[in-house]
Amino acid sequence: EGVDLYAEVQIIDVNTCEPVQGLYLDFWHCNTTGVYSGIVASGNGDSSDTTNVDKTFLRGLTPTDEDGVASYTSIFPGHYTSRATHIHILGTYNGTLLENNTYSGGYASHVGQLFFDQDLISEVELTAPYSTNTQELTTNAEDQILSEEAAEDFDPFFEYVLLGDSVSDGVLAWISVGVDMTRAQTITAAGTLTADGGVMSESTNAMGGGGGMGPGSGMGGTAPGSGMGGFGGSVGGPEGSFNAASSETDVTQSTTTGVTQSTTSGSVAAEASDPACSVRRNL
């Protein structure tokens, strides 16, 4: 339940200025009241409900098409204390789609977070069930992770249009993201969905503040020991590889609930080195 969100994320290789086809984009975010699936942690809803580790709501995985666009349907994310409203993304490339409809292998070329205009967030927050969320709302201007991303010559905000007279009719959002496809990130999961259910990493025990930027930056995406919901990570990490899905996990569900991180979201340095490569055009 929530405001329908139809999102398109275009991935552009900053080294060639060409769209990246066949990259699998993993995305996840919290629900209308600020709770992530797949994680049991203090601050993530009812932390005594251990069954949440088996849940997969608001997580997905989809490939980019010939235009480099990954399209998915979800609901507009809610908020939780200390973080502005955001969506996590992870791009995995050169993996294999197996016969049992799972995705395995490859390497993680991008980890980051995407944000929404404050006016849109404010309008959504007035509607139910978002309005029932008792957690303090952190604005874009107050979010440390967002301020770091925006300061690095990277525009992390979706463009959008309402699909009717109000947000209740749904939102269409789109963004282009520049990625250095020569980079590979080392990913550490905070939780993994197996054939026998979800399994939490022993090092994941708390709700953090942010995810998607510097080490230990937060919830909904954090490094081991700090986070819930997904990554604590960003780009520019050491060489490594990542299994986007194990053989027990359905391809339509995000298996990674946490990652390590190093620098900023988006391949900022590579993007800036070629100003002729426009990665922010509308879809």
Automatic annotation (TrEMBL):
Residues 207-239 have a biased composition (Gly residues). SUPFAM superfamilies: Aromatic compound dioxygenase. One of its GO terms (molecular function) is oxidoreductase activity, acting on single donors with incorporation of molecular oxygen, incorporation of two atoms of oxygen. Residues 246-267 have a biased composition (Low complexity). Signal peptide: none annotated. Residues 196-283 are annotated as: Disordered. It comes from the Eukaryota. CDD domains: intradiol_dioxygenase_like. PANTHER family: INTRADIOL RING-CLEAVAGE DIOXYGENASES DOMAIN-CONTAINING PROTEIN-RELATED (PTHR34315:SF1), PTHR34315. This is Intradiol ring-cleavage dioxygenases domain-containing protein.
